[in-house]
Amino acid sequence: MGNRLNRMAMNDSGFIFDPNIGVSYTTNSTGLEILKKLKETQDLDEIKAKIMDEFEVSEIEAERDIVDFMELLKSKGIIS
Amino acid sequence: MKNITYAVSGINSVDNPGAGIGIIRSIQEATKDFTCIGLAYDAMDPGLYLEQYVDRGYLLPYPSSSCDKYLKRLLYICEENDVNIIIPAFDSELPHYIKNKELLKEKNILMNIPSKKQYNDCNKSNLALLGEKIGIPVPATYSVTSLEELNAAMENTGFPCMIKGCFYEAYKAHSFHEGHSYFHKLSSKWGFPVLVQQYVTGNDYNLIGLGGENGEFLGAVAAKKLLLTQQGKIWTAVTIDNPEMVDICHRFLEETKFSGGFELEFRLSDTEELYLLEINPRFPAWVYLASAAGVNLPYRYVQNLLEGKTDFDNEYAVGRMLIRYTGEMIKEITDFENIVIKGATL
Fold it and tell me: Nearest-CA neighbor of B279 among B303, B301, B255?
């Protein structure tokens, strides 16, 4: 079924729908920003900078959130 | 296309509904000019009382009746109402229609239904062979007619496994004891063979499609089952955009030249491998979802028969949901009386 992230439809409300397999998810604003950024780049530093800037959190907090969230995405087969 | 009268079965809009009401709704949304004759097998089939959909309803003998008896009643209904088209919606009645397709055609009653071979190719016990030809795995399936064969099959599949009736119904068995119980239940209801199928864990998907007289692709819509009844029937579903499923549909039509409405049942395993579980040789009960998403297959069925049209697009809305619900209607006992005594609504 390939890389699922690129085909995901994401709404600003945090509702995410995979039109290929009909599965939907919800996420908070941090998760949504990470997902949007992941669609553009795989560069973790770039994603981290975006989260730090958007949510005014420390580098450690941003990195922890991103790593945790990416593990969750991997476990659901959304990213590989 | 004015003054067309079509007859449709499967108007048992109950907890395990036929496709009839969805078919009628779809056609009504395309045109108000058609007259609908509802064909029912039980005086309490709700479709007989849904006047907003069925202009006139009739009782037919059960599909298990002799072909002569079935045909005699069908011809009476068709002649009384000048029926131009029939849309059969049950697997179990299809053999009568297949056998009498040419005779009905001579009387200007048209149908888009599979041939006997196509019908048999879709049979649960022949599915593995068809799956091989169109390049999709089918869970190991054993056709059994005795307890000895059942035990051997369950030893091969392991537990859980699916025990399936030859026409309808399927149950998940977790032990030999459960398997025996479902075997007796299904064989007494639907006859033999009973099918024992390897259980694949994953998510369920369905595709509805329509083949023209020579297996032309007239449209298909894929959906994910979101909520199921105890019998595994769709209660809530959402349309999806899955090119792999549509591609399998094309290969199915190319291989079989299937004619008529059909449903492909898939399971996407936890390891993301797509399996073909069943092919139903008629429209499924969720047919209206496809119409509401933009691919009105019942109306295409009529257009194909009457105009020979085969060039349809397959654009549809993805993320459109079907949510089934229960409702009640109130009728007088005299309405029931008419059907019981006359075999027809007024």
Answer: B255
